[in-house]
Design a protein that fits this description.
The complex is a heterodimer of chains A (292) and B (832).
Chain A: H1 4-9, E1 11-21, E2 29-34, E3 55-58, H2 65-68, H3 71-75, E4 81-83, E5 89-91, H4 97-106, E6 112-115, E7 117-120, H5 121-129, H6 132-138, E8 141-145, H7 153-165, E9 169-174, H8 180-187, E10 192-196, H9 202-209, H10 214-226, E11 232-238, H11 246-257, E12 262-268, H12 274-279, H13 286-290
Parallel strand pairs in A: 2-8, 8-9, 9-10, 10-11, 11-12
Antiparallel strand pairs in A: 1-2, 1-7, 3-6, 4-5
Chain B: H1 12-21, H2 33-40, E1 48-50, H3 52-63, H4 69-83, E2 104-106, H5 109-112, H6 116-122, H7 135-149, H8 154-161, H9 164-170, E3 183-184, H10 199-219, H11 226-263, H12 267-282, H13 291-308, H14 320-323, H15 325-333, H16 339-355, H17 363-368, E4 378-381, H18 393-404, E5 412-416, H19 422-434, E6 440-443, H20 444-453, H21 458-462, E7 465-467, E8 471-473, E9 486-488, H22 489-497, H23 523-555, H24 559-563, H25 566-571, E10 586-592, H26 594-610, H27 616-624, H28 631-638, H29 648-672, E11 675-680, H30 686-690, H31 721-730, E12 739-742, E13 745-748, H32 755-771, E14 776-781, H33 784-792, E15 801-803, E16 808-810, H34 816-824, E17 827-828
Parallel strand pairs in B: 1-2, 4-5, 5-6, 9-10, 10-11, 11-12, 13-14, 13-17
Antiparallel strand pairs in B: 3-9, 6-14, 7-8, 15-16
Helix pairs in contact in B: 2-16, 3-4, 3-7, 4-11, 8-23, 10-11, 10-13, 11-12, 13-16, 18-19, 19-32, 22-23, 23-29, 26-29
Classes of the chains: A alpha/beta (292), B alpha/beta (832).
Chain lengths: 292, 832
């Protein structure tokens, strides 16, 4: 194993670190969410994960408004934030995240959120290690999720390598839409991979995720050939109106059953992400489909 | 596989309630037919006072004045045993209740009889744990019982003995009827702290065996010795008399059972009644010969113990899966007993327990123990005296009973150690997931070495039994019985802010004048001021405790309890004696408001003295108006590091606070002759204690509940349940032995523990709790929606059981304040 020091210092953009995660791999885990994704799934429950760059978000429900607070407006010399007629905050998202970074610090209620923080590997490992007593008993460890965690290839690999060095169990959750070289390299530092297969219908896949299906299935096959020992859990989010028909699910299950040591897990669709769309000033496209 | 929305995952307990609402029969109903029928006869009824115990006790005591107290007590017990009404309930297989049918409570006028007059009028109206009483019985209380005790109760003696400066922080009125909720005494609402008898002694030897032992000791006394004549003789005579009392009481049940059998037309029931008669004729006088007799014998002992004295939070049951095991095993091997029959007998005991309600006369007692609190802890699991795992087949029956017949009696405590078998942990986890709050977990890896360091042998420490809410006792080594002080340290914090005063008691100098807080220029000044107030409250508590220890032996005796204790029998001393040779006095005082104080200090330190984002004056102004219009300041204060997040900034403050108590205890416990150690177990008292504390710098609004036990402030733990365990670990001073229990509540959503995978993770979580050497943890596995629905439609959720504070209670029996407190506890699920 090479470059211990450089691994620790390597930085990436992370938008959340979630302790006591019990649904993303074996045992009690800490999930590190890396920012950036090449897919644009209509049902995405982590919209803040999609863009690689840090993004400003605003939770109006927590904000005290200018009547009680307004500190962000006072300290902002640009017009990045201003207020509406009700005294609530409006954001000009065209400004760079550097301007918002200071405002986020000032906001006492954490209504202003900057999704995406540049952190180094050592810093993340030290947070992850805080729960190591729980990993030891539960068989848990670190899970890289996203976005697509392997898009930040060097950072992700450094993180995995460092985790292995600290004897932490590693899991990666991937959408499968990445270069084979990246996947191949990352797999050498993984104890398990969670591989999303959303549908086996290429047309639908393209329509709903904005990415082709073929490279994903290619990667999946190569993975099984190159790393036959690596446990794979195929995960399918069951999305109303997209793939929630019994035939659709059966096709995926049959596909998975062809492979050895591969399990299949269905994830129920949830709408926890829906308010994050409004925080980011975007529209949750899924809503209109759900109400059909 | 079906697709389910997240909140659709219900715990089995929630599912049962739903079934009931939809008129479906519980799937275990048929299997538990007998006890379900008994349960139906009293479920949901408001408890009623039975005055017989108080009446016969008072009558006897009025005739024995001047005699040695322990003997007077035995005579009073004899009078009760001979005259109290005896009952055998329909369908019941066990005999022995100490009050009328339905849910009932009994009175102990020797304790706090000076409250009785007013209490009888107030109790039915009280918001917390109300009771009713018939007009006839109310008359007996007011005319016959209360007058005798005027000027004689323990509470009046204590009230008179407290020096002015201590009284001021203890009571709010000259008669000591209203609590200050600053340094609260609890010794006047129970005769003893929680306790466990050595029940095995009775199963092995019977009361005739105890009586014979006392007789032999009596015969061996030195007739020329004045000490033997005046001290030891009355003690052994009392033991003989009290043994005869229990036996007499049991035989009266045998007589009644025979009478009932004569007129019984159902041949099956007739047979049962005759069996009951046989049992009561034989036990507890003689050693038990089989499982049924063992259960009956133990039941008589614990019920008679309830007649003898008001043990705080009800007498505990000890290690039932150990002392019953021999009988269970023999009977099963000989084909006399099946698991179903064993369960039925145990559950007959549970429904018996459920009808006895621990009645608190004083308003403070009621508020401390809401929802008719009870901790008759049954201990399971753990280790044998040799230090091997102790789990057996009977252990699993107790867990099964909780899952199939989820009554919140008895309180079930599971001992955990590093080598607890996987099946045991798995079934414990499954039972927790059931959702009615059982069992609570107590950690051998913390308790055993700690008790050895406090003076126990390994055998005794390994054999400890959980007692009451979170405590652990060694029934033949522990000798401490005085109730300890509950100290409101959020009040200490308030006294720092207002130079020794509190808003609730405006104009009165209560604490130390530590100076004008706005003049403090360094964090150290603030911290020093807190230390002074903290120490001041401890000083007050220790003086209070010193006097309590001195006074109690003049007011209380427990000849039966003492007869079951090796040291009492050896030295002819009643268990209420302050110092018993070879005994270990495990006392404690409570730290109330841990999270509240930590988070407040953290906010002040960070925002005023380090980041200088706020001035002390700005905080005071915000507190003064209870944050009305000061939302910005409140939000800023709440953004400071909080306890419960595994955040070292807050956790270091927390450990320093803990150290203040540990250090003080180490130095001054010696003078009390006990281990007076810091404990963090509020029961439900964080609610009434919060009612005297104005707004605090952690953003808590005035008069709202303080944080409970060692749990985080409401909603302040945002990092998940692993962090709250780690915060607990980080804030303990493991190098010192001056610590007692820490209570920890964790709430999970059923979804986060779903399926076998969820159980596996809960088991791992429990393992880690054990590794971290934390004392206690208990779980609520419930959806917030269920609690909110129950608050709105209580009649539909009468059966909803929730975990409160070392015990479970019906949610709808709780006051709105406490219901809201429970709802506000952070639930841990997973977000992604």
């Amino acid at each position: 194993m090479s470059n211990d020091n450089s691994d620790g210092k390597r930085v990436g953009v992370v938008f959340n670190i979630q302790r006591f995660s019990v649904h993303d791999g074996p045992g009690i885990r800490t999930v590190v969410f890396l920012k950036g994704c090449s897919m644009r799934c209509r049902w995405c429950s982590n919209p803040e994960s999609q863009n690689k760059e840090p993004e400003i978000a605003y939770n109006i429900h927590r904000c005290l408004g200018v009547r009680h607070c307004g500190r962000c407006i006072e300290s902002c010399t640009d017009n990045a934030v201003f207020c509406d007629e009700n005294g609530m905050i409006l954001i000009n998202r065209s400004y760079s995240s550097d301007i918002f970074r200071e405002l986020v610090e000032i906001c006492p209620t954490k209504s202003l959120i900057l999704y995406g923080k540049t952190q180094c590997v050592d810093e993340i490992i030290s947070i992850v290690e805080q729960d190591s007593v729980f990993y030891f008993r539960s068989g848990g460890g670190i899970t890289l999720s996203g976005g697509e965690p392997l898009l930040q290839r060097e950072f992700a690999v450094s993180l995995l390598r460092k985790a292995k060095q600290h004897r932490i169990d590693t899991v990666v959750e991937t959408c499968g839409f990445i270069s084979w070289e990246t996947l191949r390299e990352a797999c050498t530092y993984m104890n398990r991979i969670l591989f999303d297969i959303k549908t086996l219908d290429p047309v639908k896949h393209e329509e709903y995720t904005k990415t082709p299906l073929e490279p994903i299935l290619d990667n999946f096959n190569k993975l099984k050939e190159t790393y036959p020992e690596l446990p794979i859990s195929v995960r399918t989010p069951v999305v109303p109106g997209f793939n929630d028909s019994p035939e659709e699910i059966r096709r995926i299950t049959e596909f998975v059953q062809k492979y050895k040591d591969t399990t299949h897990e269905l994830l129920p669709y949830h709408r926890f992400g829906s308010q994050k769309y409004s925080f980011l000033g975007r529209k949750d496209e899924m809503q209109k489909y759900l109400h059909k | 596989m079906s697709v389910t929305a997240i909140s659709d995952i219900l715990s089995p307990h929630e599912q049962r309630l739903l079934n009931k609402q939809q008129g479906k029969e519980d799937r275990f109903h048929e299997k538990h037919q007998r006890v379900s029928d008994i349960l139906k006869s009293f479920d949901g009824l408001r408890p009623k006072i039975d005055v017989e115990r108080a009446k016969y006790f008072t009558l006897s005591m009025s005739q024995t004045e001047g005699e040695p107290l322990v003997l007077r007590w035995a005579k009073a017990m004899y009078n009760i045993a001979a005259n109290i009404t005896v009952y055998i309930d329909e369908h019941q297989l066990l005999a022995g209740r100490v009050g009328h049918q339905g849910r009932y409570g009994i009175l102990y006028p020797e304790l706090d009889g000076d409250f009785l007059d007013s209490a009888i009028k107030e109790l039915p109206k009280r918001k917390e744990s109300p009771f009713t009483i018939s007009d006839k019985d109310a008359f007996i209380v007011v005319e016959e019982i209360a007058p005798y005790w005027k000027g004689k109760t323990y509470h009046e003696a204590l009230n008179a003995a407290l020096p002015k400066n201590v009284h001021k922080l203890t009571y709010d009125d000259p008669n000591g009827l209203i609590s200050r909720f600053i340094v609260n005494e609890t010794s006047s609402f129970r005769s003893s702290i929680q306790w466990v008898h050595d029940y095995e002694k009775i199963l092995k030897r019977g009361f005739n065996g105890i009586k014979a032992e006392a007789q032999a000791k009596l015969d061996a006394l030195d007739i020329d010795s004045p000490l033997d004549s005046c001290e030891k003789r009355p003690f052994y005579e009392a033991v003989i008399l009290v043994s005869e009392s229990v036996i007499l009481w049991a035989k009266r049940h045998a007589e009644l059972a025979r009478q009932l059998a004569e007129t019984e037309t159902n041949p099956q029931r007739k047979k049962e009644l005759l069996k009951i008669a046989d049992n009561c004729e034989h036990v507890p006088a003689e050693p038990a010969r089989n499982f049924y007799e063992a259960v009956q014998s133990q039941w008589f002992v614990q019920m008679f113990s309830r007649l003898e004295q008001k043990t705080g939070t009800i007498i505990s049951n000890g290690r039932m899966d150990q002392y019953f095991y021999r009988f269970y095993k023999e009977d099963k091997e000989s084909g006399q007993l099946t698991d179903e029959k064993a369960l039925e007998l145990l559950e007959c005991m549970w429904v018996g327990m459920a009808q006895f309600v621990d009645l608190y006369i004083s308003p403070a007692g009621g508020a401390f123990n809401e929802g008719y609190a009870h901790w008759e802890a049954v201990t399971i699991g753990g280790q044998t005296p040799e230090g091997r795992d102790a789990v057996n087949e009977l252990t699993y029956l107790f867990l099964k009973s909780k899952r199939e017949f989820p009554l919140h009696y008895p309180d079930l405590a599971a001992r955990i150690h590093t080598l607890s078998p996987e099946r045991y942990l798995w079934e414990v986890a499954e039972t927790i997931k059931d959702g009615s709050g059982f069992p609570k977990l107590i950690n051998d890896e913390e308790v055993v070495p700690l008790y050895v360091s406090k003076g126990a042998s390994f055998e005794e420490a390994y054999d400890y039994a959980v007692s009451g809410c979170t405590e652990a006792r060694m029934p033949n080594r522990d000798t401490y019985t005085s109730g300890g002080a509950y100290i409101n340290f959020a009040a200490a914090l308030e006294m720092v802010l207002y130079n020794g005063r509190m808003k609730k008691y405006s104009g009165q100098d209560l604490g130390i004048q530590t100076g004008d807080v706005t003049k403090f220029t360094l964090w150290e000044h603030f911290w020093e001021a807190y230390k002074k107030q903290h120490r001041f409250l401890l000083r007050t508590a220790f003086i209070q405790q010193y006097l309590i220890i001195k006074l109690r032996q003049e007011h209380f005796a427990q000849p039966m309890g003492s007869s079951l204790h090796n040291l009492c029998m050896k030295y002819a001393l009643d268990l209420h004696t302050p110092q018993i040779p070879e005994g270990i006095n495990l006392g404690y005082f409570e730290y109330i408001g841990y999270g509240t104080v930590i988070d407040s200090l953290s906010a002040v330190k960070k925002l005023v003295f380090e980041e200088k984002k706020l001035t002390m004056q700005e905080i005071l102004d915000a507190l003064d108006c209870n944050f009305e219009g000061k939302e910005y300041i409140r939000a800023l204060l709440q953004s400071a590091p909080c306890y419960g997040n595994n955040d070292l900034y807050a956790d270091e403050i927390a450990r320093d606070i803990d150290f203040l108590s540990v250090e003080y205890g180490k130095k001054y416990s010696v003078e009390l002759g006990i281990h007076n150690d810091v404990r963090y177990v509020p029961f439900t008292s964080h609610v009434p204690f919060g009612k005297v504390v104005s707004a605090t710098p952690n953003g808590r609004r005035a008069w709202t509940p303080l944080s409970d036990g060692t749990s985080a402030s409401h909603g302040a733990d945002v990092t998940g349940p692993t962090a709250i365990l780690l915060s607990n670990y980080m804030t303990k001073n493991y190098g010192y032995r001056e610590r007692a229990a820490r209570m920890l509540n964790i709430k999970f959503t059923p979804k986060s523990l779903e399926g076998d995978e969820g159980t596996r993770k809960l088991v791992a979580f429990i393992h880690t709790f054990c590794d971290l050497k934390l004392w206690h943890v208990q779980f609520n596995v419930v959806n917030k929606e269920t609690l909110l629905a129950a608050q709105k439609n209580p009649e539909l959720y009468r059966g909803l059981i929730v975990r409160i504070a070392g015990y479970s209670a019906y949610f709808t029996d709780l006051s709105p304040d406490l219901q809201n407190d429970l709802i506000a506890r952070t639930a841990h699920g997973t977000l992604n």
